[in-house]
């Protein structure tokens, strides 16, 4: 069961009783998503580009997606967004998050109108955005295309250690284009070594509220 829970910045998250963890930081769900994935990930990787493709590990509530969708719409960037989710939330639960308050009404409407179908096949949800939410695990995921950015937003290593194994990180990184960006809220010595072993340059950045540091890494060019 998932329980709506307020966080320190006034935005809500969900507490997953099965996993025993919140979907976002209790120090601020909205702040974390903006800091880690939009500012350190999307803005960094999309600079000077007219289109961008993102692979997210862990769609969850869709907060990272709607913020990305709005940023790309505002900046006339074509967004191709694929997000793996093994346990999709219902549209009813997503509507209860209150995240409609953080984006323009047309962004929220385009998202929620197309959410259920995006779980089945890719949806052109606007002239600038395609959304696909494969209902699968990362281990079982495969794709012919490569992506510009990976948002690695799995539950923490304490609660889902299998998602942070060297093998799983290598599998995820295999979907990035040369020069692509890997970004996550976490940073550990083991994670840094696993990413670096796949040919990435590592950056330690200031973390979102409640975390001292986070990781951004850029894949070497061929």
Proportion of strand residues: 25-35%
Helix content: 25-40%
Q: Counting H and I runs of at least 4 residues, what is the number of helices?
A: 6
The helix-and-strand class reads: alpha/beta
Straight-line N-to-C gap? 45 Å
Average pLDDT for all residues = 95
Characterize the overall form: globular
Described by strand count, sense and barrel closure, the largest sheet is: 8 strands, mixed
Give me the Rg, rounded: 16 Å
Pattern of helices and strands: EEEHEHEHHEEEHEHEE
Strand order of the largest sheet: 6-7-5-4-8-9-11-10
Low-confidence stretches: none
Number of strands: 11
Task: Provide structural commentary.
It contains six helices and eleven strands. By secondary structure, the protein is an alpha/beta fold. Strands 6-7-5-4-8-9-11-10 form an eight-stranded mixed beta sheet, sandwiched between helices. It has a three-stranded antiparallel beta sheet with strand order 1-2-3, with no helix packed on it. It is globular. The mean pLDDT is 95.
Question: What are the SSEs and their pairings?
Answer:
Blueprint: E1 2-6, E2 12-16, E3 21-22, H1 29-46, E4 51-57, H2 63-74, E5 78-84, H3 91-96, H4 105-118, E6 123-126, E7 129-132, E8 147-152, H5 166-173, E9 176-184, H6 189-196, E10 200-206, E11 213-219
Parallel strand pairs: 4-5, 4-8, 5-7, 8-9
Antiparallel strand pairs: 1-2, 2-3, 6-7, 9-11, 10-11
Helix pairs in contact: 1-2, 5-6
């Amino acid at each position: 069961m998932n329980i709506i829970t307020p966080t320190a910045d006034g935005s809500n998250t969900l507490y997953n009783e099965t996993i025993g963890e919140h979907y976002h930081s209790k120090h601020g769900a909205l702040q974390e998503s903006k800091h880690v994935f939009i500012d350190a990930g999307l803005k960094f990787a999309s600079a000077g580009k007219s289109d961008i493709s993102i692979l997210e590990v862990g769609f969850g509530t869709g907060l990272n997606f709607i913020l990305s969708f709005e940023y790309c719409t505002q900046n006339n960037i074509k967004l191709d967004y694929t997000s793996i989710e093994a346990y999709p939330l219902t549209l009813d639960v997503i509507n209860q998050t209150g995240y409609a308050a953080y984006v323009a009404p047309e962004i929220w409407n385009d998202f929620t109108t197309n959410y259920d179908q995006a779980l089945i096949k890719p949806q052109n949800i606007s002239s600038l955005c395609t959304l696909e939410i494969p209902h699968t695990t990362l281990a079982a995921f495969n794709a012919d295309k490569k992506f510009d950015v990976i948002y690695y937003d799995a539950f923490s290593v304490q609660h889902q250690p299998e998602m942070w194994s060297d093998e799983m990180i290598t599998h995820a990184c295999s979907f990035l284009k040369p020069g692509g960006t890997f970004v996550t809220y976490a940073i550990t010595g083991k994670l840094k070594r696993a990413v670096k072993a796949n040919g990435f340059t590592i950056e330690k950045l200031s973390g979102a509220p409640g975390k001292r540091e986070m990781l951004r890494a850029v894949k070497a060019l061929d």
